[in-house]
Amino acid sequence: MALDLNQQARDILNRNDRGGYTVPTARLYPYQWNWDSAFVALGFATFNRDRAWQELELLLQGQWDNGMIPHIIFRRDDPDYFPGPSVWQTSGGAFPSGGISQPPVFASVMLELIESGGAEDLGQAQAMFDQVLKWHRWFHHDRTPNGCPVVCTVHPWETGRDNCPDWELGLDRMDVDEGIEPYTRMDTVHADVSERPSKLQYDKYVTIIKFGRDVGWDQKRLTNEGPFLMADPGIHFILMRADRDLLAIAKMLGRSDAFDELQGFISKSETGTDYLWNPDMNAFCARDVRSGTFSQGFSSASALPFYADAGTPAQRQGTLDNIKRIAAKVDYLIPSWDPDAADFEPQRYWCGPVWPQMNNIISKGLAEQGETDFAEQVRQDLARLIEKSGFFECFNTMTGDGCIGTDFSWTAALWLAWASPNQEN
Ligand code: GLC
C-alpha cells in the first residue's frame, strides 16, 4: 500500500511539472506558488535531486529587484485563475507576479537538502545564497512596520493561511473599495463553495490588491499605509527558523560577511516574540497591529514556536497544553483553526482542515525539541489521512475526508519526503 502510494506521489509530481517548476494542482492553481515549490523540492529530492534544485532555481527567477520573492509567478496567463497578472499589474521582477510574498521556508529546505546530500548540494546552495539573504532582508526591512517589533503581513494570502479566522480582525477594520472592478471568481468554479472563502472576504482581498497597485507596489507604503496590517505567528516563526538555517548555511560556506546581519535578524525576532504572546489563550496568536488586538483562537501557526526554537519554557508549556486540549476534540491533528472557537468549520479551507505542510514543520519542531510523542502523532495523522483519502490539498479534521484540490503537489512531496512509513520510496 505504502509502496503504491509512493508511486502515485511521484506520478503526481511528474504530472504537475510544467517544465522545471510545478503547479500545486492542475486547474485550481495553474502557476508556480512560492512555499509550495519549496516543499515540492523536498519531494523531488527523493528521486531526482537535480529536479529539486531546479524547482528552487525557477522560484528565484521570480525575485523582485527589491528582494521580495512573490507568492505566485505568472509565467503565462491562464484564464483558470483569478486574480491573474492583469489584476496584480506588477513589474518588480523578470516575470509578472503577485505583489506580496509567502512564508519563507526556502532556506530551511535548502539546509535539509544539504544535510541529506553532498558537496554538489552545498554548491547549489552557494549559488542561491545571496538571493535568499536579500529576500530575508526584504522581510525585515520592508515588511516590518515603523515602530513594530516583528515582521508583519499586509494580506491574508501572504501568510499562506488565506481565510483563517485569524485575519477577521484586520479585515473587519477595512472597507471594500468601491473602485474595485467587477470580477468573476474561478476558485468556486473548481471547488465546492462550502470549502472556500466568502464573497465579502474576496472583495477585501481584492481591495488590498487595488491599494498595492495604486501605490505602484511600493512595499514600504503597502506595509505602513495599507488597509490591512497584522502580525502572524506563522511568518514570524518560519522566518526566524529560516534565518537560523541560513546562518548555518553561511557558516558551512564560510560566508562570514553575512554572520552579523543574520544574527541581527535572529536577535530582533527573539526580542519580538513576546509581541505575539496572547495571555488569554496562553498561546502565540495573530495580532492586529493598529489596534493591538489579539485573535482569540489557537491556529496551526500557534504550534510553531518549537520549529523556531522560540519562546520561554512557560510559553512552550502553554502551547503544548493547547495542543493537548485540541487533540481531545479532533480525529486528526493539527487543525488549522481552533475547534473550540465559534467559527471553526472542519471542512472549510483554513477554518479547520489539516494542512500537510503545516503538519510537516510543526512535527519537525516538536521532534527537535524532544516532544517526540506529539511529533510522531502529527506525522502519523497526516499519513493516515493520505492513506484514507489520497493526495488532497487539505483534510477535514473530524472525518478525514479530503478537501478542495486533488492530486496535490505538496501533499505528494511530503508523503515521499516525510510522512510515508516506507522511506525507501
Ligand atoms: C492556497 C493556500 C496557500 C497555497 C496555495 C497554492 O492559496 O492557502 O497556502 O500556497 O493555495 O497551493
State the CATH topology. Answer: Glycosyltransferase
How much of the sequence lies in strands comes to under 5%
What oligomeric state do these chains adopt?
single chain
Model regions low in confidence, pLDDT < 50 over at least 5 residues: none
Strand order in the sheet with the most strands: 1-2
Order of helices and strands: HEHHEHHHHHHHEHHEEEHHHEEH
Structural class: mainly alpha
The number of helical elements comes to 16
Which CATH class is shown? Mainly Alpha
Amino-to-carboxy terminus distance: 12 Å
Total beta strands: 8
Principal-axis shape equals globular
What does this structure look like?
Helix content is 47%, strand content 4%. With 425 residues, the chain is mainly alpha-helical. The protein has one domain (2-419): Glycosyltransferase (Alpha/alpha barrel). The strands form four sheets. A two-stranded antiparallel ribbon has the order 1-2. The mean pLDDT is 97. Bound molecules: alpha-D-glucopyranose. The site of alpha-D-glucopyranose (GLC) has 7 residues, from helix 2.
Q: Layout of helices and strands, plus pairs?
A:
Layout: H1 2-16, E1 32-33, H2 34-44, H3 49-60, E2 72-73, H4 85-88, H5 106-116, H6 119-142, H7 168-172, H8 187-190, H9 199-214, H10 219-225, E3 230-231, H11 233-253, H12 259-272, E4 277-278, E5 283-284, E6 287-288, H13 313-327, H14 356-368, H15 372-389, E7 394-395, E8 402-403, H16 409-419
Antiparallel strand pairs: 1-2, 3-6, 4-5, 7-8
Helix pairs in contact: 1-16, 2-3, 2-5, 2-16, 5-6, 5-11, 6-11, 11-12, 14-15, 15-16
Bound molecules: alpha-D-glucopyranose (GLC).
